[in-house]
Amino acid sequence: MPFVIAVAGKGGTGKTTLAALMVRSLLKTVHTPILAVDADPNTNFDAAVGLRSARSISDVLDETKGMRTLPANLPKTVFMQYQLEECLAEGRGMDLIVMGRPEGAGCYCAANHLLREYLDRLIAQYRYVVVDNEAGMEHISRRTTQKVDLLFVVSDPTLAGLRAARRIQDLVDSLDLTVRESALVLNRTDSLTPALEGAVREQNLHLAGTIPVDPLVAAYELEGRALVDLPDDAPAVRAAAELLAQHVSSGARA
Q1: pLDDT, tens digit (0-9, with 9 covering 90-100), for 232-241
Q2: Is the separation of the CB atoms in 23 and 199 below 8 Å?
Q3: Which domains does the chain have, with CATH numbers?
């Protein structure tokens, strides 16, 4: 079974950045193959990891929902598998699949059942899975996996951000998920002040670590460059690598 790392947080906190840095660290330590899952329709995980998917899962669901006739009289299970395989963007040591937007009107029950079977088989082929989630965790709770080995909830160093992180943690606790370890990551934080430490304790969140402000991250994002190509000495890269080593080394799959 793969080791599943999920990253969640409200928009603007830098969760996609952290997810990409996790992928980068795994690639650099040859913990491959890796499946990157873009499960947030509002982010750009594909750009951050340097892969582009021609289609999303939601595209396939919309196209196959309610179809009465199929090309060459193929069974629907076979036809849908062909379509889903086109959603997988392949790279060196890492592949990407994009979940896309939420479901529209109509019944997706049959398609979702086939999708779940396909995703279960796909995920089982990888050593590591890194999921960039939306705050509501919809895809991971309904489609992607019912097991998460490590969940990072990302916040900026503000009280509003920490309260949002607490709400996300409460939501995760209410879902039908098995989360082995869950922890807070403070992004764009160069130091922990007593006030910030107190706010973390007040929200009853376990702090895993911090990612510092890094001008290189902002520059790469502005230029449209993949964050997995950041240099080894970038402060955010070093911090993410330390974070991953502390929380994955003891429980990672061989």
Answers
A1: 999 999 999 9
A2: no
A3: 3-248 (3.40.50.300)
